[in-house]
Amino acid sequence: MRYNLQLEPATIVDRTRGNALPSSRNRQVKMLSLAFVTAALLALPNQAQTGETAATPWAQKENEAESSFVAGQYREAESKWKEAIEIAQKDANKLNLAETLNQMTHLYLKQKRLDEARSSLQAALAIREKELGKNNQKTAETLGNLALVEHKSGHDNDAERLYKEVIEIKRKDANSNSLAITLTNLANLYGEMRRIEDARKLYLEALELDKKTYGAEHREVAQDFFNLGAVMYHHNYNKEAVDYLDQSLALYEKLNDAPGKIKCLHYLGLSHAEEKSHGKAIDAYRKALTLHSQLKGDRHPDTLVHQLNLARTLDSSGQEKEAEVLYKDAVGTASKYHTDSRVKLIECAIEYAHFLKRHGRKIEAENQLKEVLPVYETLSAHHRRELYELPRVYSDLLRELKKDADADALARKHLDVFAPHHVSKAPSEQKPSPNSAKETSSKSRSKAAEKPKKPPRATK
User: Fold this and answer.
1) Hey, CA dihedral for 71, 73, 76, 80, is it positive or negative?
2) Among residues 275, 199, 297, which one has the least CA distance to residue 307?
3) DSSP output for 278-320
4) What is the pLDDT of residues 37-66, one digit of tens each?
5) In-domain check, residue 350
6) Which residues contact residue 290 at a Cβ distance below 8 angstroms, ignoring those fewer than 6 apart?
């Protein structure tokens, strides 16, 4: 099973695009809950866009809230935004209130408070439609953020309808430079819905718009190529994925963008591995591992993803000894350096046990699983379900060793993780999405808010 990085979505709103959100497919790829911060997430705090100056009490609170949000001080940010709301509610000009309601969506999305995000945006939308009209770009910004909330809520039809409304508004405005962001968000949704050709068409349109807006050698263009490569990989079009990823990698190399290069190499490794091009996969994984080690350290949890993928591919190409060295090192690293990350230890141990079993070393595999089972049993119910593979593989191995009674006892003890509704979500049968959609404005973009690198201000 290939390990995929779970790309951390940039939680902002109509103002920042992120990576593609292709749908998962049934393949031997296990998802690790590793955050991988992609290029450009939040932009710098933006001045209020409602005619207020930074000297007004409302603008001051708004900017303080955004600064706190960017700094990760979410409780402080929420308190400041609520103060801004109180001030704006006393003003005859309700656009300030709409601005704050819109901006708070960043916090709500970050904390997965989707119902609150929806209510806040609906209130902001009502104000902007009344004060500015339905075809105004600020109205479109809020509408785009609302589409993102519905997208994240799993309301695909509502999200598609809203994204299309935003796109229609933006197409009418020749000065709108955020159309590509919304196109990408809708493409992300289509990828999840397995409407691959619809997704590809929108990604390509976003690519052309970004070339026109930023030039052919810009990060946004590199991100667009990456989005195309990721969605192709997630839908089994591995050769097409390689073509797009190669173009993305070439641009990231020109830009000397290490995070961009790492994610491209990661997906190139996955794509080549699916095509059994083990030499190319190994080369990509080695480069990704080296770069990630330089960027975050060779003991960082994310680095283990590249290490496990490299080990798996080396083993597939007959380089068993080097593969085992990497597996052992990963387990040791997870045990010694990530004592608080029990999940990481379980993931590494499972992979090493698979390796041992593949090479007929079943007793050693049993010992490996037996050693980490007590750790597994201390995990939360959520994590135990995510890592259901451990008791399942352990039980199957015990049966192969003719220890049926022990296998039955283990299966009964962990019956909840064998339930069909859990099995269908097995990590080994799903691919994670590289990044979630966003209607904000900078396209770090899974395209989310709409403003290039500025704090959370939604602008789509």
Assistant:
1) positive
2) 297
3) HHHHHHHHHHHHHHHHHHH-TTSHHHHHHHHHHHHHHHHTT-H
4) 222 222 233 444 444 445 799 999 999 999
5) yes
6) none
25: amino acid identity, one letter = R
Positive or negative: CA dihedral 87, 90, 96, 100: positive
Alpha-carbon gap, residue 319 to 55, rounded angstroms: 65
**In the predicted model, what is the mean pLDDT of the chain?**
82
Alpha-carbon Rg for the chain, nearest whole angstrom, is: 24
Q: Please report, for the domain that includes residue 35, its CATH number.
A: 1.25.40.10
Please check whether residue 442 lies inside any domain of the structure.
Answer: no
Rounded mean pLDDT of 292-309?
A: 91
Residue 427 covered by a domain: no
For 282-319, letters b (16+ CB in 10 Å) and e give bbbbbbbbebbeeebeeebbbbbbbbbbbbbbbbbbeb
Number of alpha helices (DSSP H) and beta strands (DSSP E) in the chain? 21, 2
Specify the DSSP element, H or E, that contains 35: strand 29-37
- pLDDT of 419: 53
* Residue 133, domain member (yes or no): yes
Taking the model in full, what pTM does it have?
0.79
Domain of 278 in residue numbering reads as: 2-387
CB 162 within 8 A of CB 121: no
Rounded (to 5) percent helix, strand, coil in the chain: 65, 5, 30
Phi, psi of 91 (to 5 degrees): -95, 140
What pLDDT does 3 receive?
56
Pairwise CA distance, residues 447 & 187, whole Å? 10
| Number of domains within the chain | 1
